Amino acid sequence: MPERLTFIHAADLHLGAPFRGVRALSEEWAQRLIKSLVEAYDRVITAAISHDVDFVVLSGDSFDLATPSYGDYVRFFAGLERLQEAGIPVYLVTGNHDPYTLWRRDFGKLPDNVTMLPSNRPGFVLHSREGRAKCIVAGRGYYNQTWPADTCIAEGLTRTEAEKALVDKHPYIAETPFAVGVLHCGLNLDCTKAPVSPSILTAAGMDYWALGHIHNRFVYPSFDNPRIVYSGCIQGLDMKETGSRGVFCVTLEKDAPNKIEFIPTASIVWQRVSVDVSHCLTLPAVAHKIMQELYRVNGVAQCEEMIVRITLEGTTALHSVLKRKDVQDDLRLQINDSCPGFFCDTLLSDTIMPRDKDTLRREGLFPSVFLRVADKQKEEKEAAIDYVQSELLARGVQISAEIVSDIDTLLNQAENLVLDLLGQGDDQ
Amino acid sequence: MKGAFLKYAAMRLFGSFAHKTIGPFSPGLNVVFGRNEAGKTTIASFICGVLFGWEEARGNRNTYKPQHAERSGSLIFATPKGEVELSRTRNADGLQGDDTLVSDLDKDTFRTMFFLTADELRGLRNTTDITARLLTAGAGTESSPASALGKVQSKLAYHASRAAAAEDSLANVYNRYAQLRSQVAVAAAEEEKFCQEDQELREFETQREQIAAHLNKLNKVIEQATSVCAQVEKIDSEIEQLEEQIQTLQLDEEELNLQSDKYCQDSPYLSNLTVAQEANLRDRLDSLTAQETKLQHAIDLARNDVATSTATYEALQDMKSSVSHRRRRLQRSVQIVLSAVLSIVFLGAGVLFFYRGRAISSLSFTALGLGLFVFAFMLAIVAMVMLLRPDRAADEWEQRQENARWVMLQEKRKLEACQNDRETFYQQTKEELDSCGLKDAGGSLRCARQLLDEAKEMSSDRSLHQQRLQALIARRTSLEDALSRAEKQRNTLFSDIEQILHGVSLEQTVGALQELISQKTQQRSKLFDSLEGMNQRFGELKEALVQAKTCHDFDDLKLRCEQARTSLTESLKDCVRHLLARRMLESAIANWESESQPETYRRAGELLSMMTDGRWTTVSMTVDNYLTVSGDDKVSCNPVHLSLGTCQQLYLALRIALLETAQGVGRAIPILADDILVNFDAARRFGAAQALTELSKSRQVILFTCHEEVVAALQQADPTLNKVVL
Description:
The complex is a heterodimer. Chain A is an alpha/beta fold. Chain A has helices spanning 27-50, 70-85, 100-103, 159-166, 198-202, 283-298, 319-322, 325-338, 357-363, 366-379, 381-394, 401-405, 407-423; strands at residues 4-10, 55-59, 90-93, 114-116, 123-129, 132-140, 178-184, 208-212, 218-220, 228-230, 246-253, 259-264, 268-276, 305-313, 342-349. Chain A has 13 helices and 15 strands. In chain A, strands 4-3-2-1-11-12 form a 6-stranded mixed beta sheet, with helices on one face. Chain A has a 6-stranded mixed beta sheet with strand order 5-6-7-8-10-9. Chain A has a 3-stranded parallel beta sheet with strand order 13-14-15. Chain B is an alpha/beta fold. Chain B is 68% helix and 9% strand. Chain B has a 5-stranded parallel beta sheet with strand order 6-10-11-3-12, with helices on both faces. Chain B has a 4-stranded antiparallel beta sheet with strand order 2-1-4-5, covered by helices on one side. A 3-stranded antiparallel beta sheet of chain B has the order 7-8-9. The two termini of chain B are 28 Å apart.
């Protein structure tokens, strides 16, 4: 029987993360959300035990920079102890959100089955089972929140270096069947956080690279034989982290392609749904269309519970109605009442009033002047940003990066807002 | 010149009017003349109310609302397509009829520009705003740009508001977020504290173990020190007693030593006899005594034997002639005779029978005769033998007598020998006793034994003395040993204590021990206090951490903070959206105005010149957005420095110019002027009437007045004016 190794590849637990982007949660859903992260973590531990894996890899960011609650803190260590009781070792590296400097005080609490790979140098450890060397685990974590730009985080993390480092203690290290690398890096997906070229990793002699940092699942070169893998986060942490989340159960077999099995762990998935209501003539039709879309999205979410942000789009005569907050709240209420597993925290209307801008431009009336001015201002983004910045500063508020990045959208929305206002009766 | 114009104002119920129709009006200049309280201002308010809604019937203002009835009325417009009626009853029902006639005008613009009163003409309040309002009104939109700008401004003002009602204002949301953020920071510090307390708890566990170990150690030290102290006290007491005893023993010993010298002086030989020697000597004495006894016994026996043998001999001598001896001799003689007789008898019988048998040939008689013969022969032999046999009894008697004599002699010899032996024995004994130091015994074994007994007694006494001495010495030695042991034990106890104290040297006294116990007890007490405090803190921490473990307040707070952050982002975006919208609108309005404003001020100058008969010829706006007027002398003047009449003329001129310029605004709506010329002198009144006549060429003008001269001036300026008398 060929040599075989199975392990759980998890990353970016972000215990204590504050769930950014939530808008208006009900008390019940707030409680569900609060519990979701630790529940997801418990599922990771349960998956490791039920799959009877050789070990568990945590590829950084086990904790979020935001201080975790004491309950989360205790739960994390309790999970590790559960693995210890099951005889499953854990190899972890620190990430940019939970760098080594923040771990110092917790070293004493790490159970004996947990090995934290170093942050100041490449670290190597030999995983053995029943006295047999099974896998070299190599990795390196973050020392503090920033990885120096002039240093490659994967430098020195090769099988050759690992064998050199371990040969004194383990003379037969070269016969170890597998080698797994563990890193918290940006690969070529995030150039700001320890970027590494995939070619460097593939040339390092490792059978599998368990990476963390990117919250979405990513596999290189392919699912048929994954070599460099991001398992993604175990629970979506904000509205942008939509879709199913979980860990990979990795199986390495000698002379066979690597296999990964996705294990969903999220308690709640986030979804952002854009619903085109152009063809809806009434509000019930809008509500029906929204529900259709929600069921469609939930069908692929691999999770019962879903928090959804709905954006209504399209050109519709209902634009002015859908803009009304009371109408939006009513629609939200209908959605939340219709299915206990769904919760719409925000319903936005990005619909457009039916209008022909070209005609307006041709008419030569005020709208044409306005559109001309608006076009010009939309082109002069820097001026718009300067204006917004000075106006906000006058109000004691600083401009945010999001505003700067969204300036195009905001200019368009401002234009539509004015056109909407011009198109409204004075009594509205 | 005109499209639609107001032809009639039909008041069904308005103020004190019921079912009253005013009109008809012409499309040009109209003057409504009436006395005071004829209803001029009421009509003007009615037209405004129908077009833009009745004033809310609140407060003490006259809103023309009849008691227990709704205000109601219509305006009938003449249009190229016929008459159009716009009517209103309740505000909630809105304007009934073809409202496109008023779609190019908003209420504020109407009240500012279309509804002129003497008071309104005192200024334009915000000139820019009004200009913008006017110039952009009727810009081809549902709402005027100024109105839209107003809404944008209003929204921006909302965002700047800190009023509680403005819940989602940027300022409030920011404050809310800042508050929550600071709460999160506090809660985070609290959670951090919990984590530290968790660490503290773990350290406490170690410290508690250490303190417990230290306490155990202290207890052990105290226990041992107490035990040692008690033991040392006891040992010290023992040592004291032992020393006293030893001293006493030493005295006794000295006394005994003195006594022992006395023993040594008496009979040194005997006294120096060892037990073995004494035993040997006694054995020897016993042996000698036994020997003496034996000799004496032998002498006694010999003497007895001599006596016996002598007696025996003498007795035998005496028994020689005795009866028994004679009887024995007679018996012998009888036996011999009898044997000889019998043998002859039997021989005779035998021969007889033999011959008879032979004679009769009887074998049996023959055999019997032969047998008797044999028997007689044998009997003769026996008699012969008996005859021939010595006399044994006599021999024996002789022999016995001889023997008795021999024995007697032998015994006598033996007695002598014994007596000699005894003498020799005595001699030897004496010599031996002398040689054994028992000279005093004079060879007497009894004396010797007595001497020995005396010596033994003395020896015994001495031995006893020695024993006593030895016992004393032994006791003393034992006590000294005990003392030594006690001292050793004491030293051991102190060294044990010092060992427990990790080599800290300690004065080997009970006081030092008690001091140590006291010191350690104090330490223990302090440690107990410390442990108690620690246990209390441990309990508090444990309880707090157990609660903290299940508490989600911090997560809840973080979530609320994030929701506030999202609200802040949205409010910020909304604010930015409105800022950008305002910027676009203002720029657009400025552009829109810039195309018409110079013409407006030029026309206003013309009209003002007309009204002031050339005194003020130019109206302009400074770069600072201040309105100025100047005459031919080019001296600029701020409107506030003008007289009331001139000021009113200026603003009337400006309004007429704006209304002429903004042809697209309120095209069907009449300009209502409520006695605006009353402050003007005749010349300027005429000038103003001319200006209004100019305006009436492009717009319907309805002037309300109660002054005949005003009517006259207007008629002078426009003879074709339509006069409506109330």
